[in-house]
Structure formats: C-alpha cells, structure tokens
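Pasting as-is:
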Amino acid sequence: MAAESASKPSIQTFYEGLSKTGLVRRLLEIARDEDLGPDRIDLTARVTHSETEHASARVVLAQDAVVAGLAAIPELLEVFEAEVMVTSALSDGDRATKGTVLATLEGPLNQIVTIERTILNLLGRLTGVATLASEYVQRAGPGVDVLDTRKTTPGLRVLEKYAVRCGGGTSHRLGLHDAVLIKDNHIAHVPNDELASWIADAARRAKGLSSAFFMVEVDTLDQFREILRVDDGLVDYVLLDNMSPETMRSAVGMRDDAGSSIKLEASGGVRLETIKSIAASGVDRISVGALTHQAVTADVRLDIGTGR
C-alpha cells in the first residue's frame, strides 16, 4: 500500500491495505516462532496439562491511552492456531482510561497463556505509539498534517505506522519503494545553479514510475529558491530540514509569492515543545521521527480466570 493521499483513509481501510502487503502476517509469524521455536511448543503449558481447562481472560489497560493493535488480534490467533474467541467493545483509535477492558478472550487455558505475551507486546507497543502521536497532533493544532517517518523498529514498520494513524497522524511513504524523496545526500554533488534542472529531470523520470509523490529535501532557502524555478506540478512536496520557524515562515512566503502549488513539510528535531511554533510558521505538514522512536510502550495487562 502506498503512502496516504490528501484524503486520509479510515483507520480500518488503512489497516486492511497494510495487511494486504503480507508484512503483518510475517511479523506475527516471527513473534510466534520467537516464543514457540521451530517445533512450536509451549513447554510450560505442556507440563501443566492445561489444555482441558477453559479460561476467560480480560486484557486491561493500566493507564489512559489511545488504543491501537486490536485489528491485528484475529490474524495473530490464526497464526498461533489458537481456538480462542476475542471480543471487544472498543476500536483502534478510541481514547480509553485506566482500567478499561480492551478485549475479552475465551478458550482453552493453555492457548490463552501461550498467546498472552504476544498480545500484550503488540497492544502495548502500538497503543504507546498511538498515544504519543495523538499528543503531537493535538499540540500541532488544526490545519497541519503530522506525519511519521521511516525511523521505525525494524520489521514493525507497517504496524507502527498503523498506530500513528490510530493516533490521528498521517502515514508518510512506507519505504523506498512507494514514493520518491530526494534527500541532501542525493544532491550533495549537484551545484546550486544546476539544481533546478537536475530536479526537473528526476521529476520527469519519476512520472513513469508508480510513485505516490515526488519530494525534495532542502536545508537552505537558496536551495529552495532553486526548486521554485522547476516547472510547477513536477515537485509535490519540499521538505524543509532542520530550519527554524522563522526560516520556514520565509519559505512559506517565497512559495506563496511564486504562486507555486508545492506543499511544504517541516522535519528534523521536532519535539512536543516545539511543534506548535513550527505549525504556526504556515507549513502544510510536519514529519516527526519521535512518533515511533521515542514512544513508550503502554501498560497493558491480562487478567485470567478459569472454570466453566
């Protein structure tokens, strides 16, 4: 699935697109194999003879948070071949308070204890990302999109980006395969007076590819001035890297004076304390690596009972 378009899909639609890549299932299979090994055995469950015991378990949120990860549980149960029924009154993206029951599990005790840690790891990590993303979105305020980056946990990218969406954020490109982003290292060899023609040539070549967008990163206003010389419509976004709000405000003015359709995105060192002033500069988008690499796993617990 490509990066999100200007009209953001629903959380459910976004998850379905990510799931179709097959990456979610591969991740869950790795999680299964981490715990059960090549022979897929839970030794503790085997020696406790708990396969005949029926259990009911509640997955409980131990803090206030924005929920994410419930959508992946049915596929997780399928991967573990667990005959467990899951129910929930909540949906991903819901804001919940401490003590809220996120989901109820019903089934054989041995299977519930086998999948317990994977479910808690999944919900805890994704809920933590969604909660942090929600705070960034709120502080940025209306009128500006808050986007994730590729600064994700290896292997977890699609689910972490899904969690950002649950928190109200927007997905950037998923990887190197679905959009073009010309960064500083790509153009370090290009003289400033040749930058406009070089970018224009690259943008025209991109038209023949399945690219969600064409973006160029700049770190000076002189570079940005050159990008504005490129024929309008060839460059979709310009990434203003590590610029002060004052400099970004100047870039917005330059863009508007030129009558350009380019959208401007701020990036680099964005923090909760600074995102409001960055948004006030007039940029259209703000990408924040911290949404994923600074998120703290939420506290999620499983309470179990037996008997029927």
